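User: Reviewer 2 asked us to show a designed sequence for the structure in our supplementary figure. I'm pasting the C-alpha cells here. Could you produce the per-position amino acids so we can include them in the response letter?
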C-alpha cells in the first residue's frame, strides 16, 4: 500500500498509542516512512500498523489499546467465545492481523464495531 496523503501523524499516534511528537521521531529515525520527497504525501498505514504490533509488548499504558483489540476483547465486542473469534479470524470472516511472532490475533476496534453492528442489525431484522 502506498502512503496516503490523508493519513496523518495524529492518526498514526492513535494506532501506535503514542504522542504525535513520538510519531515524528519515528519518521526521523526512518522507522516510519513519509510519502515521496517534494510531493504531498502522508504516512504508510501498513507500516504504522506493523510498528504498532511490533512494539505491543513495550506498551506501558494500562487498559485496552485505543486501536487494537485482543482476542479476549474481540470476543466481548462480538458476543461470542474466544475460540469462535479465532475460527472467524482464521477463515477470514472477520478482519484480523496475525502478529509476526505467530501467537496472537489482533483486531482493529473500528472494524469489530462494524461487524458487531451488522450482526446486531441482522438479528434485529430476523426478529421482526
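Assistant: Here is a per-position design you can include in the supplement:
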Amino acid at each position: 500500500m502506498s502512503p496516503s496523503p490523508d493519513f496523518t501523524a495524529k492518526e498514526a499516534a492513535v494506532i501506535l498509542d503514542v504522542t504525535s511528537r513520538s510519531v515524528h521521531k519515528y519518521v526521523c529515525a526512518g522507522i516510519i516512512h513519509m510519502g515521496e520527497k517534494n510531493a504531498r504525501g502522508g504516512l504508510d498505514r501498513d507500516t504504522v500498523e506493523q510498528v504498532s504490533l511490533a512494539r505491543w509488548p513495550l506498551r506501558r499504558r494500562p487498559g485496552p489499546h485505543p486501536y487494537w483489540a485482543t482476542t479476549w476483547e474481540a470476543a466481548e465486542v462480538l458476543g461470542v467465545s474466544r475460540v469462535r473469534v479465532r475460527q472467524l479470524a482464521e477463515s477470514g470472516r472477520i478482519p484480523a492481523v496475525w502478529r509476526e511472532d505467530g501467537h496472537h490475533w489482533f483486531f482493529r476496534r473500528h472494524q469489530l464495531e462494524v461487524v458487531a453492528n451488522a450482526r446486531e442489525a441482522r438479528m434485529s431484522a430476523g426478529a421482526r
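For the response letter, you might also mention the following. The helical segments are 9-16, 20-28, 45-54, 71-78, 82-90, 109-127. The longest strand covers residues 105-108.
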